[in-house]
Amino acid sequence: MSALSTITAHLFPSPAKISTFEAVKPRTLPFNSAQLCDQSTSLTSLLLPKTTSRRRLNSVAEDRELGPAESIERDDEKATGESKSETIKNETVSNVSDRDRFLNAAIVLGAGTLAITKLLTIDHDYWKGWTLYEVLRYAPEHNWIAYEEALKANPVLAKMVISGIVYSLGDWIAQCYEGKPLLDFDRTRMFRSGLVGFSLHGSLSHYYYQFCEALFPFNSWWVVPAKVAFDQTIWSSVWNSIYYVVLGFLRFESPSNIFSELRSTYWPMLTAGWKLWPFAHLITYGVIPLEQRLLWVDCVELVWVTILSTYSNEKSEARISEDS
Length: 324
Fold this sequence. Notes:
This protein is an all-alpha fold and about 325 residues long. It has nine helices and no strands. It folds into two domains: about 60 residues; about 170 residues, no CATH class. The radius of gyration is 50 Å and the shape is flat. It is a multi-pass membrane protein.
């Protein structure tokens, strides 16, 4: 207020005393345009920073509002890309499974057709004029005669072929028992099991049964129980160990993992065999002739190989899942 009074006093100097009867003369007020410009400039300078700061705040707010939208778009694009890649992956897996199923069906159909043809055409050289009844009637008997002739000609090879077929079928049954569809079996796994049966079980069993007969060359009543006890302790331990070790090497596992699995499965598998084999071997050593024993044992091993293959692959898959 004092500053306003000072400015007013400067602009409007106090007039001299005028008498009552002195005529009043009009006065013009001085107008200073420079001061008015300075005042307007100062007012503008006071107002502009607020306006500028408001614009900056608005632009920042707009940027913040646009940020989440852009991130949502990126997330949508990423999710779309992942869904596309997942779809392509599922289609690839489906195509591979369809191709594997087709190959498995071709293998089963080819092997089954070959086996049935061989069994039914055993008398094709001289069955001219035979009826279908006569062909089916004499086929089992003549196939048995052909098997005995093969045993006489090359017993080791004949037993190797039988064991290879039995171990392949046993692994296939094991995979079906594990829940896989009939034509979705693992060909590599079945081939490994068949290879072990062909290359090792047939030949080793041939020489083992001869060794067992030489070890107990008696006709007393205790010979059969002694052979069963020897089979279910010494021979079972040797063969189960060979089976696990060879399968592990065929799966390209390290020796430490193989022997670790062998230690953990040795006793459970040995005791599991005692639930089946002692009763089967009472027939093996008490009734079946020496040259026919492996055929009988292989028929029983369709059940045993199913158990053995299932247990071995469960242990391997469990270890792989733990490592991963």
